[in-house]
Amino acid sequence: MANLKRATRPVKAQAPAAGGADAPPSLVDIRRHNLSATLKSVRDHGRVTRADLIAESGLNRVTVLHLVSELQEMGLIQESGLAATGKSGRPARVLEMSDGGLAVGALELNVDHVALKCTSLQGRVVFTERRDVSAGDHPPEYVLDLAAELIRQAASAAAAEAMRIVRVSVGCPAFVDNADGVVLKSLSLGWADVRVVDELERRSGGAVAFTLDKLADLAIHAERQNGGFAGEEGILLLYGEMGVGGSFQKHSEILRGDAGMGGQFGHLTVNHNGRPCYCGRTGCLETYVGVAPLSRALESSTGHHSSSAAVRVSEALAAVQEERAVAKRELAEQGMWLARAVSTLTAIFDPRVIILGGYLTQLAPLLMPAFEKELGLYGEGEFTHGTEIVVSQLGTAAVLDGGIDTAIGDLVREPWTLTA
Q: Are 27-97 and 102-218+400-419 equal in CATH topology?
C-alpha cells in the first residue's frame, strides 16, 4: 500500500494544567477521538492495512489493533483481500469501509417531490425512489408521512440484503435549526417551526438517526467531490431553488455561524430600494434571481397564476427549455443581479471557486451571457483574482449525493453513536 501522510494526530493523555485550568480529555474522549481518526483514515484512503494505520497514527500496535477490531465489530469496516508488503512473510490484509451490514440515506423534502436514496458505506446504491408531490399544498404531517413510508420501503430493501439503515440526512428549502432539527421557516413549503427530525425519528420508531440541513449544505459536499477540490480549498455554492440558497465550505467544514444561520446568500442585499422580501428586508438576491422571480415574470405576461409551487417550478423550467422570449428577458436581468452578488461574495470570502448549482444549472443557458457581461463590469479588480466561477454539472442531483456523503461523514465523526 502507498505511504500515508499523518492527517489526524492521535490524542494522548495529558497531565492537568497548572493552576486548575481546563481538565485534560478523559480516557473516553481519547478513545472516541482515536476511533474516529482511525475510521477517517480508512475512508480517506479507501484501502489501507493495519501497518499503514499504525504508521500514520503514531499509536502503538496493540491500540490500533483494538481500534480496528472495534470498528469491525460495529460493522463500519471490513477486510478485503491482501496487499503485498514487499517484505518476507504473509501479505497484509486490506481494510476498507463496509459494503454490507450498515446503510445510510439522504432524504430530500422539496416543493414538488420527496426523494430518498440509500447506499452502503462504500456508496453502493441499495434503494432510490422519488415521489412527485406538491408539498406546499399539503400539511407537513402529510409530507413527513410520505417520507416515513419511503424510509420503511428502503428499510425492507436493505433488510433483503441483510443491511439496516442507521442514519439519514434530510434536506429542505428552508431556514433550518441544524442543531435541533427544526424547519424554522420555509416559504417554498409553507412550513414554520416544524420539528422534522423529531417527527421522522418518531415515525421510524427510533431505529434511524436523522439530521436536518438546508439543501445547499448537503449539495456542497457532492460539488466538492465532483469538482475534485481539496479539503483546504474554500468553495462557495449558490444553489437555485424558488429563490437562492447558499453554502460556504472550507477545510471540509460548512460555515454555519454561531446561531446556525450562516450561508443565507439569497438574502444578500443587491438593491437597497428594491423588491420586498419575506424576510422583512428589501432588495434581497432571491427576490431577483431564481425560479420564483421567473415564475412571476411568466405570470405577468400570461395573466395566469397558479397557487401551487410545484406547478410554478414546472412551468418556469419549461419556459427556459423552450427559450420563450419572456424567459430570455427575465433571465438576462437575473444574470445582471447575480453577477453583482457574486462580485460581493468573492470579495468577502475569497473562495477557490463559486459554483452555480441547483435550478441555476437549468437557468444557466439563458442567464450566463448577461451574467458574464455584468461580471466583467463589476468583478474586475484584485478581489476576484483567482476565483473560478463554474456551472454545476450535478444540478439538483447534488442534494441526494451530498446527503449520502454527509451521513457517512457523521458516522465517521461519531462512530460510537452506533452503540449508544
A: no
